[in-house]
Amino acid sequence: MKHYTKYIIPFFAFFLLLGCTEKDNTVDKVFQDTVYGAILRTTQTISTSYNAFDPSSLFSIMLEEQDEEMGNLLASVDIYISFEDNQEDAMDKSVSEVLLVNIPASDFTTGDNGLPVIQFERSLAEAASAVGISDSDYSGGDRFIYRMVLNLTDGRSYTNTDYGGTVSNSSFFRSPLIYYVGVNCTPITPIPGTYSIDLQDSYGDGWNGASIVVTIDGVAESYTLDSGSSGSFSISVPEDTEELSFVFNSGDWDGEVTFQIYAPNGEIASEQGPSPGVGEIPLSICPD
What we know:
Elements: H1 2-32, E1 38-51, E2 58-67, E3 74-84, E4 95-104, E5 109-110, E6 116-123, H2 124-131, E7 143-152, E8 157-158, H3 165-169, E9 178-184, E10 193-201, E11 211-216, E12 219-223, E13 230-237, E14 244-249, E15 257-262, E16 268-272, E17 279-280
Parallel strand pairs: 1-9
Antiparallel strand pairs: 1-2, 2-6, 3-4, 3-7, 5-6, 7-8, 7-9, 10-13, 10-15, 11-12, 11-14, 14-17, 15-16
């Protein structure tokens, strides 16, 4: 057995060495052919929607560029903008993509991670002007689309279609390079008139302690279903009202609860449930 042992051990050692050498060569070749890209991360979301009632409302985000040379490959970022008309009328006011701005690397500063960072923001008025529309051309449900192109000093460029879901949407990378900014209609001051609230309970035994509290200039009134599957209420908001709020308070069985709030113009200002969000109810009331 000793004679066999002398020859068997070197025999396997030879193939083990040969196998490792071939594997290492393959790995080296793979990494030798690898090209590293670059990303433009969204590190902070400050505001992601516009208010149709407020031309100064902002779309605002913080961006961080990262590449294999710690940001030294950054040349510039091109930002394009387009407008999507989602109104249900005969006239489509959508606007195709146009170049909004080119941001050179020199406009970036160095962030906490030692990488180039910049805050990008545009107001609703600026966005509308960029695509050549007026404040009468947009309303709630429309949206502006910002698409970015990251340009590197070696001639490469990256946009949203160059990345997969892991880079675009993961919590770490957050590099979509495209942003959809919706237009909402959030009243700056209370809109007077008669509001309607429709309440429903899918089980039919009332709201079980849940309620909507409406406060008009400090005077609060609660609306609920004591029993049954549905109910409706009307709320009169005077012309000189300075403060108006709708607040949903949770009950025992919110999974059964749904409601709709109708604005004075008859349009739905809010629709929630089952399990509505607890707290103040945001209203979207667009101009007629």
